[in-house]
Structure prediction request, 803 residues.
Amino acid sequence: MVALKELPTRELFGPGHRMCTGCGPAATARITMKALEKPAIIVNATGCLEVASTIYPDTAWKVPWVHTLFENTAAVASGIEASLQAQGRADAVDVIAFGGDGGTFDIGIQALSGALERKHDFTYICYDNEAYMNTGIQRSGATPYGAATTTTPAGSKIPGKLNPKKDLIGICAAHGIEYAATASVAFWNDYISKVRRATAVKGPAVLHVLAPCPLGWRFDTSETIKLAKLAVQTRYFPLYEVENGKYKLSMKVPKPVPLEEFLKPQGRFRHLFAPEFARNLEELKKQVESNWNRIAQLCGEPIVQTQPASG
Amino acid sequence: MSAEESKPGWTSLPIGAVLLTPGSAEQNKTGTWRLKRPVLDAKKCTNCLLCWIYCPEPAIMRGAKTIEFSYDYCKGCGICATECPTKAISMTEET
Amino acid sequence: MAKVVSQKIVGMNGDEAVAFAAKQAKVDVVAAYPITPQTIMVERFSDYVADGEVDTQFVCVESEHSALSACVGSSLAGSRVFTATSSQGLALMHEVLYLASGLRTPIVMAVANRALSAPINIHNDHSDMMGSRDCGWIQIYAENAQEAYDWTLQAFRIAEDHNVSLPVTVNLDGFTISHAMEGVAILEDGEVSKLVGKRQPKYRLDPDNPMTFGALTLPDYYSEFKRQQVDAMDKTPPVIAAVADEFKKVSGRQYSDVSCFNVEDAEAVVICMGSIAGTARTVATRLRQQGKRVGVLKIWQYRPFPTRTIAELLSKVKCTGVIDRAVSFGAPYGALCSDIASTKVQTQIQTRILNVVCGLGGRDVKPTDIEQVFEKALRCADGTPVDTSVSYLGVRQ
Prediction:
C-alpha cells in the first residue's frame, strides 16, 4: 500500500504524447512509471501506446525505450535482459515490456511463452483495451463475448464476437512462473503494488491490466476510470494474483454491481440490449459469472451460482 | 522554403531514427485538442491527488496544498472531474 | 609490421569454423534457433557455453523470428551479438532483417544457405539469402570453411565500424561447406581479440542516458533514414578493404570484394559465388591448358555490390557467364545476373552476358556443367549468336 503523496512527482512518461483524450493505456503507462523503484528499460510492442508516444522527433519517454515489431516484444526483452546479464547489470536495471492485448494474446503469445519458459528476469505488462485498437478496433483474443468490433460487428445476423476471452494469466501461470496478476487502471494502489511485486521477482512476471478505450468501447472520455472500476465491481474482470501457481483474490466483490451498469455506457455492447439478442446478453452474464466462479474456486473463495451454468 | 524542406536532412540526423532527447514530446502542446477545460474550485479540494494519478497526459501538477492544471497539455477528457470525490472540478466549454 | 604467426590447422567443418570464430570474437549474446544445416553451429557453441569456454549469454529461443529479435534487443543494449540460420529460418525472420538494418544494429549472422520450400529441401542453394537480398544487410559469400571462419571474424569489425553500423550475413553453402571437414588455419585467441577489439556502441539502451529507439517516422522523415542506410552501404567497401588489410597482416590471407582467377586476359569469364568457385577454377585451369582464355570471378562481397570493381575487371572480357544458384521467378535474369546486367548498363562496359541457373536444392554442379557454361561463353565471345535467355543446367525435361 502506498499513499499518493509518496509517489514521485517526476514524470517518466511525459505530456505531449498523442494518445486519445481519456486513454486508459496512457493512464496505465503513466501509473506504471510512478511505481518504478529502479532504473528501467522499456520494450514496447507496436500498438497504441508505442505509436502515439513516439512520433519522430517527439518521444514522451524519459527512460531508455525501444519499439521494434508487433509480435516480438518478449523476445526483444529477452535479448535486452541477456545483454544486461552479460554486462553484470541485470540486478540493477528492470526490463519492462509493454504490449497491448493484440501484441500479447494473439500475435505475441509465442514470444511471450518462450520468454516465460526460459525464465528471463523481466516484467511483461499487457495493457488490455480488448481489441486491436490502434489499427481501428478489430477483434483480438481478448475481446469479450458479445462485443462489437470492426471485424466482429453487431450485425443483424451475428451480434458481435461469439468466442470468449482467452485466459492470459492462466496461460502464463501454466509456465510455472513466480508471479502473474490481473489489475485495473482504476485501482491504482493495487496496480502499483503489483508492478512493484512483479519487478521484484527474480525471473519473469506478467501483469494483465484492464485499460478501457473511449474510442473503441464507445463511451464518454470522462468515464475511463469509472468503467475500469465497474469492470471489477461487476465481476466482469476479476482482480487476482497467481504466486507460484497459487491463486489469490485481490478484491472479493461480495455484492457485485449488476453487469448492465458496466455494459450500458459502452456503445460496443449496445446491440445486446435489443430484444432479438437478449439471449446473447444472458450468455454474457452466464460467462461472467462462470469465469468469476472459476477464479473464486481457484482462490479458495466461496462461489455462488445465480445464473444457470454457461452453455 | 516549405515547412517540410526546412526539417533536418539525412546528414545531420542521428542514425537509425534514434531520439536522443528524453521527453521531447513536451514541445507538442496537446492543450489545443481541448473542447472542454477543467476548472478547480479550490475551496472543495482536499488535495487527495486522485485527479493527479488518473490524468493520462499528465496535465495536473501537484502542489503543497492543492493541484494545478497544465492547460498546455490538458486534452479535456474529464476523468479528473468524474473521479474527484468532492466534485471540486467542473468541465466548462473551452472558449 | 606484425609477422604472420604460423597457424594451427584444425579439422573443422564450416559450421564448426563459424562457431569457433564467434567464440574467439567473444560475443556477449547468442540467440539462435536450430535449423538444418546450421545446427552444428549452435550445438558447437552450446558446448562452449556448457564447458565454460565462453562467457556468452546463450538464449535458446523458440523461433528464428525471436532469435533475431532477441539479437536486436541485445545489440541495442550494447552487446556484441551473433546468430545463425538457414532457409526457412531466414525467411521467418524476414521482417526482423529490415528491422535490424533500419535500427543500425551491427549483428553478425551466419547463413548456411539452403533451398526454400516448397517443396521442402534441406540442401544447398542460394534462394534463402537471395530472397532477402534487399534487407539492408552486408552480405558476404564464403567458398569454404576457411573463408567462413575468416569472414566471420572480419564481419564483427566491419559491422561495428561507426561509418558502417550495419548487420552482416556470412553465407556458406549448406552441407557442401557447413558439413564438410577441412583443415582450417586458426588464429590465436589473442590475435583475434586484437583484431576485433571490444564493441563501442554509439547509441545504446542505458538508464544513465535514456534514448528512444524505434519511433514512428511519418512521410516527413522516413526517407532520410533510408538514405542514411544507403550512405552506410557506400561507406562499407573501404571499411571491408581496411579490415582485410589488417587481417592479412595477422593471417597471411588477403580478402577483398572479389577474387579473380585468370580474369586479366580472359575472353570468357564465369561469375559465381560460394563453393562452386572451386569447381569453376578447376575447369578453367583445364581449359587454359587447351589454350582457351577463360577466367573465374568469384564474388565475396555481394552487398554492397562491387559495381566499379566488376566493371573494371570485365572491361575487356568479351562474354560473361553468370551462375545463379536461385531462381528469380518471372524476372529476365537471376538475381546475381541482374546485378551484373545492371553493372553493364550503369558503367557501359561491353561484355555480353549469359545466365545459367544450376545447383538448385543441392543438385551437384559438376565440372562438366561448368564446362558447358564456359563453352557457351566462348562461343558467345567469338561472336556466335547465342540464346541469351536464362538456361537451366542439369534439369531433366
